[in-house]
Amino acid sequence: MVLYAASRKGQHLDLTPASSQMTLNYPRLDIADRSSIDSFAKAIQKDHPKVDVLINNAGVNLDMEYSPANAKKTLDTNYRGTLNVSKTQKFRGARSDRQQMCRTFIPLLHKDGRIVNVSSTGSSLSGYSKEIQERFRNPKMTLQDLEQMMNEYQEAANNGTESRDGWKSQAYSVTKAAENAMTAVLARENPGLIINACCPGWVDTDMGALMGRPPKTPGT
Prior knowledge:
The protein is an alpha/beta fold and about 220 residues long. Helices cover about 35% and strands about 15% of the residues. The chain has helices at about 35-45, 70-85, 130-135, 145-160, 170-190; strands spanning about 1-5, 25, 50-55, 90, 100, 110-120, 195-200. The strands form 3 sheets. A 3-stranded parallel beta sheet has the order 3-6-7, covered by helices on one side. Strands 1-2 form a two-stranded parallel sheet. A two-stranded antiparallel ribbon has the order 4-5. Helix 2 (about 70-85) packs antiparallel against helix 4 (about 145-160) and helix 4 runs antiparallel to helix 5. The two termini are about 20 Å apart.
C-alpha cells in the first residue's frame, strides 16, 4: 500500500506506517492552484494505474480576519479547490480558470473507489435564510447551481450584505456547507463510486486550535 500525505509545503509529517507493507510519500500539493493539482495527478498516474481512495482534507479558516478577499480565498480552497481535485465541469460563461472545474481524480479511481471529503460541524445550515437552506438541500442540485450560490455569497460578502441576503458572515461555514452539497452531487453523478463527507470532530491542528484546546490529536 502506498499513501500520499500531501501538503502545500511538501513537508515530512513523521507519520507512522500502519504496517511494514505501507510506503509513505509527502508530495507538495496546493489545491487552490490548478497547475499543482495537474502535476500531482501526473506523478500519481506515472507510478500507479489506479487510485483506491482520495481523502480531501485541505482547507483554510480565515474568519478571524473576515473580509471579501479572505472569503474568496476560502471559497477557492475549501470549495473550488476540493472540486478541482474531484471533478471537471466547464461552466458556460465562466470568467476564470477557477470556474473550470478540473476532472482529476475521478477518472483515476478504481471502478469501486472512494472519495472522502473532510467536512465540519460548521457546515450546519442553521443561521441561513429558509430559501438558502432549501437551495442547499435541493436533491436535484447541479454543480452549476452550486457555483451560482457561491457567486451570490461572494457578491454579498463584497457588499457587506450577508445577513440581509440570508447568508452567514463566516466563509468557512459557507464553504463547508457547499462542500457537503458538492459531495452529494458528485455521489449522485458517480453511482459506482463511494463518495461521502465526514466530520472528524475537534482535532488538535493549527485550525482546530483557533477555538481553544481541542481534545483530539491527529491520528487518534
